[in-house]
User: What shape does this take?
Amino acid sequence: MSKAGIVDAALGILDQYGLADLSMRRIADALGVQAAAIYWHFANKQTLLAAVSDAILAGQAPCDESMSIAGWARDLREVLLTHRDAAELVAASLAVGLCTRVPDAGAVEVLEAEGWPPDDARRATRAIVHFVLGHVIQEQTRQNLLAVGVLTSPTPALDEDGFELGLRMLVSGVQAVAAG
Assistant: This one.
């Protein structure tokens, strides 16, 4: 049993059962060990969840000069949509500061290269990250509710067109601030 194996098992459980059912006991059962064995590798559940968040964010392409800020945000959305409840998990892990990967890595540097002061570049990319996380949390929540029959039809405002409109508005605002 390794850290990577535990994270892989946790990702499998996340995808199958969702964040609410991602317990240390369920992960241990999937690995055929006692829950206490996981604590040999992770100090607590929060550090394990942060490692799972890092594994999810590892799928994100690094932002560089060849990628637009909007393209970077779209890529982040796609990465989050690949795992059930990923946006909620990543948002929580970022909030407690335990992630070693951050979704705006590279994007800050791209804005700085365009002349943005570092603090403003960080704030601008964080605003976009917060938009993406919030939108995907709503998308994934609705998907979960549709899957169990609580909702009977998707909400058009939360589809890809809604995401694109919100992203366009946010990026336009960032560009307007940059223009002075």
Notes: Residues 118-147 form the longest helix (30 residues).
